[in-house]
Amino acid sequence: MKASIYFNYTSRSLLRGGQRTILAIFCVAVGVMAIVSLQLVGQMINSAFTSNIRDANGGDIAVTSQTPFKSSDLSFFANLKSNGTITSYTPTISGNASTGLAASVTQSFTLEAVDPTTFPVVTPPSFKTPADGSISSLLKNDQVVVDQNLVDQYNKKVGDTLTVHASTSSGTGGVTLQVKIVGIVKNTGVFAQSNDFMLISHDDYQAADPKLPLLYDSIYVTTVDKAHTDQAAKAIADHFPIANTVTADQALKNNQAQVDFIKKFLEIAGLLALLIGGVGIVNTMQVLLSRRRIEIAMLKTTGYRRFDLYLLFGLEAGLLGLVGGLVGAAAAIGVSYLVRNIVQQVFPIIIPFFLDPVIICGGVLIGLVTALIFGLLPIVQAANIRPLNVIRELPGANRVGSIFLTIGLLLLLSVLFCVMAVVILNDVVLGISAVYGTFIFLAILSLFFGLIVLVISLLPVPERFSIKYLALIIVGVAVSALLFYALPTFGGLLLVVSLMGIVIVLLPRSWKSNTKMALRNIGRQRARTTTTLLALFVGVFTIGLILVLGQDLRDNINAAIAKNLTFNLVAIARGNEATQLQAQLGTIPGLSADHSQGRTYASDAPVTIDGVPFTTLIPKNDQGGPNDLGRGGTLYYLGGLEGYDVANGQLPETQNVTFTGRNLNVSDAGTNNVLMNANLMKLAPLKGHIHIGSTITLASIDGKSIKTVTVVGTYQASGFNLHFGPILTTRETVTALTPAGQATSIFYMKIDSDKVGKALQKIGTIAPNATVANFANIGDFINNFIGDILLVLTTIASLSLLAGVIIIANAVALANAGAETRTGYTEVGGLHQQDDPGRGAHREWPDWWNGCAARDAAGDPCHQFAGPVRFQDGLWRKLVYRHWLDFGYRAASNGDLGHCSLGLDARAAFRSVALRVALTA
What single DSSP character describes residue 122? Predict the structure, then answer.
C-alpha cells in the first residue's frame, strides 16, 4: 500500500468528521492543558525554592533558636572565624511590627534588625530605589529599608516617616521606633522568599530602649568550602545543642522534599483531567469508526489487512493527539500564569514566572501518546469488523471472543496509561497506586452509576394512576423522608423525584410519550451514559468536596472562636508599663472586667528532664512529623511560662479543657508546680521520657537563673484555647525565671467591638511600648485565608471539571450523531426536526401512534398484521414500515390512487432518508 494513502485517507477522514473531530481535539487539549499548566506551576515553585539556595538560606549555615542567642554567644563565632573555620557571620533579630497599635494582628510585617557592616554575608541585595543603594550606607540614623510589598500595603514612598511598634525577639514587651524609609529592595537573593519586611540597624533598634538587651534569634555563617561547612556545622551544633543548624545542602534537601510533594499533587490533578479527556477520546473514536463500518468492510474486501487498518486508524488518532497536544500546550501557558498568580496571592511566596520548553514540548508528546493509548480500544475493535456481519447487519460484538478482546484491551490501556503516569510523576509506586487506585474507585463508582442508569431507564410513565404505581410513589416518599434525617440534600432530591411521579401522570399525553422515550434512550447506551456521569462526577465531586469541607472548617473555627475565645485584645507590657497598665485597666473604654485578666510571663530554656540532659533526649535534625513534635515543637512547649495568681483564686480555665493528673489550685501558691501540654507526653520525641511527677530544670533566657519545677498535671484543649506560655504555673515560678528588670505581664482583655479603636488608643497612652495583638477580626482573617486556599484548590479541580464538561458536550454530540438513523426514519412518519429538542423524543409521534391504535381497534387487518409496536430500539423501523403498509392497504382496498401515491412517496422518502443516513454514517 502506498504511503500517501495513509496521510490522504487519515486527513480526509478527520475533515469529514467535522464536529466530532473538533470534540476529540478538545478532549485531548483540555487534558494536556491541565497537566502542562500544573507542571509549569510546579516547576516555577521548584525554581523559587531551590534556585540559589545559598542566598535563600542566608549563608552556608543558618543557625536559629527559639531560645535567643546573647551577645556573649557571638564570641564563639568570632573564634571560629579567627581559626579559619568560617569566613564571616552576622546575627539578626526578627519580630513582628505594625504602624500603630490600632492595627489588627493580621496587619503586621516583619522587622529585622541587622548589623549593616556584615549583613548579608551572601550576595548583597539589589535596590529599586536608590539604584546604587547598599545596606551599610542606608541603615543609620533611624533610617530603614523596606520591600515593595510593604510600600504598596501602607501606601508609603521613599522619604516618608512613620511610627513602628515592634515586638522583641523573646516576645517580652516591645519597642516604639520613629523611622524614615530611605530605600526599597528587590525580592531577590537573600530576600527571594521575603514579603512585607523592614530592615533597621542594631544600634537604632537598641536606642529605642537602651535597657533592652540584644537577643539574637538567627546567625548566618559562610565558609570556604563544603568541608569547612560540615566542620563548622558540627562545632555549632555541639556548642548550641538546642539550636537548629541548617546548612545550604540541608535547606535544599528540605525545600526539595516540600516542592516534590507540591509538584506530585499538581501532576496527579493534571493526570486526572487527562484521564477524563482520554475517556472522551474513546467515545469519539468509537463513534467515528462505527460510522465507517461499510467503509472498513470495503477496505477489507479490497485486500487491506488488519495491520493496515491499525496503521490507518492509529495515524488518525495520532493526528488528533498531536493537534490536541499543540492546542493544549498553547492554552497551558495562559492557565499556568493564572494559577501561579492565585498561588502567589494566597501564600506569602514570590514565584517567578517562566516557561520551561521541555514541559511544553512534552505536553505535545503527552497529547500524542494519550490519543494513541485511549484510541487503541476503538481502533482494534474497528479493525476486527467482519465484512459479512456488515452485509447482514449483524452486530458482531457480543461474541465471547469480542468480550474477552475488550477486557484485554482495557487492561492494556490501563497498563499503558500507568506507564505514562510513572514517567510523568517519576515515581513508580506513586504512579501505580495513583492510577490503579483511581481505576478501582471509578470501577466501583461505575457500578453504582450503572445501577442508577438502569433504574432510570425502567421508570414507568403510566397513562393513569394504579395501585402499584401509587405504592411505588409512597415507598419513594417514605425512603426520602428517612434519608432526609441523615442526608438532607439527598433526601430532598429523592422526594422531588418521587413527587414527579405524580406530576408525570397529570401531564399531556404527548409530554408523557416524550418523557418515556427520553428515559428509555438513557438506557440505550448505558456504558456511554455511565462514562459521562463519571466524568461529570469527578469534577463536581472534587469541587463540591472542597467547598463543603471548607465551609465546615469555617463553621467549626468560627464556633470555636465564639465559644472559647473570651478576649479580643492581648497586650504584652514590661516593667513599669505593666504595672501602670494593671493599675489603669478600669479606664480602658469598653473593657469587660469579668472576661479580662493579667498573667505574668517569662521565656525559658529546658536543661534537664528527671536529671537527664534535655539535649540527649532530642534526636539531631528531628524535623517532626504526624506523631512527632520535632525539635522546634518540643522547644515551643517547653520555652515559655505563664504565671497565675493562684493565691487569689486565678486558675487555668477548665472550659473545654481536659486535665490529666490535676489542675493548679490555691495550695500551689509559692510552689514550683506546673501543668504541661499533653502533646509532650503523647508524641515523640519526649513520649516515655516525661510524665506526671517528672521534674524539669529550666533556665532563664539570660542563663542567670535556674529553677526545677514539678509536673502535677497535663492539659488538652478541645477548642480554641490560647496561651502565650505553654507551661502553666504560679507567679512565683515565673518571677524566679525572669531576668532582672524584664518583668513581663500579659493582659487578656474583652473589649466591646465598637470601642476597640478607643481602647487601643488608651492602651497606647498608658503603655506606649506595649505589644498589642488585636484579635477583633481574627475570624474574618481566618475565613479569608481559608477562602484563598479553597480558591487555589478549586482552580486546580476546575481543570478536571472542564474536562468533564467537554466530555458531556462530546457525549451529547455523539448521541445526536448516533440518533441520525432513527431521526431519519421518524421523519418519514411525519415527525419534524423541531419536535426533537436534542433528547431523541418526538412530540408528534403520540398523535400518529394513537391514530394507528384507533384503526387497530376498528379491525384494520393490515395494522393487525404489522403487530404491536412497543418502545424499543426497533421502534423506528417498525413505525416507517407500518406507516407504508397503511398507505398500501388503503390504496389496494379502496382503489384510491391518491393513497397509493402517498404510499409510494412514503416508501421513496424512507429509501431516500435511509440512503442519506447510510451515506453520512
Answer: S
Is the C-alpha dihedral spanning 356, 362, 363, 364 positive or negative?
Answer: positive
Contact call for residues 558 and 783 (beta carbons, < 8 A): yes
DSSP string computed for 473-527: HHHHHHHHHHHHHH-HHHHHHHHHHHHHHHHHHHS-HHHHHHHHHHHHHHHHTHH
Gap between the Cα atoms of 48 and 40, Å rounded:
12
- Return all residues near 146 (Cβ < 8 A) that are at least 6 apart: 156, 181, 183, 184, 185, 197, 198, 199
Residue 85 DSSP symbol:
S
pLDDT of 558-616, one tens digit each? Answer: 777 777 777 888 888 888 888 899 899 889 999 988 878 899 999 999 999 999 999 89
C-alpha angle 427-431-433 in degrees, rounded to nearest 5? 125
Mean pLDDT of 767-791: 79
Residue 679, pLDDT > 60, answer yes
C-beta separation of 274 from 32 below 8 A:
yes
Handedness of CA 349, 352, 353, 359 (dihedral sign): negative
Among the listed residues 614, 610, 632, 611, the one whose alpha carbon sits nearest the alpha carbon of residue 690 = 610
- Determine the Cα–Cα distance for residues 499 and 479; give it in Å rounded to an integer: 12
Pairing of strands 197-201, 109-114: parallel
Are 784 and 576 in contact by the 8 Å Cβ rule? The answer is no
Q: Which helix (H) or strand (E) holds 198?
A: strand 197-201
Note the pLDDT of residue 456.
84
Q: Would residue 867 be called left, alpha or beta, if left means φ above 0 and alpha means ψ between -120 and 50 degrees? A: left
Helix 226-239 vs helix 74-82: angle between axes, to the nearest 10 degrees? 150
- How much is the pLDDT for 888? 39
Would you say 749 and 597 are in contact if contact means Cβ atoms under 8 Å apart?
A: no
Contact (CB, 8 A) for 658 and 715: yes
Residue type, 588: I
Report the DSSP pairing between strands 727-730 and 244-247.
unpaired
pLDDT attached to residue 337: 93
Identify whether the C-beta of residue 370 lies closer than 8 Å to the C-beta of residue 321.
yes
Report the candidate in 282, 290, 796, 291 with the shortest Cα–Cα distance to residue 531: 282
pLDDT tens sequence across 324-374? 999 999 999 999 999 898 888 777 778 889 899 999 999 999 999 999 998
Mean pLDDT over residues 237-241, rounded?
A: 90
**Coarse DSSP helix, strand, coil percentages of the chain, rounded to the nearest 5 percent:** 60, 15, 25
Of 143, 149, 146, 174, give the one whose Cα is nearest residue 161.
143
Using CA atoms, how far apart are residues 795 and 345, in angstroms rounded to an integer?
Answer: 13
pLDDT digits (tens, 9 = 90+) for 262-318: 889 888 888 888 888 888 788 778 777 877 888 888 888 888 888 888 888 889 899
278/523 Cα distance (integer angstroms): 23
Q: What is the pLDDT of residue 811?
A: 66
Question: What 3-state class would DSSP assign to 717?
Answer: strand
* CA 511 – CA 613 distance, rounded (Å): 84
Q: Quote the cell numbers at residue 793.
A: 484548590
Quote the pLDDT of residue 707. 95
Beta pairing, strands 61-69 & 244-247: antiparallel
The confidence band for 399, taking pLDDT boundaries of 50, 70 and 90, is low
Do you find a cis peptide bond into 120, omega within 30 degrees of 0? Answer: yes
Rounded Cα distance between 365 and 14, Å, is: 20
Q: What is the C-alpha separation between 369 and 375, in angstroms, rounded?
A: 10
Q: Are residues 281 and 320 in contact, defined by beta-carbon separation less than 8 angstroms?
A: yes
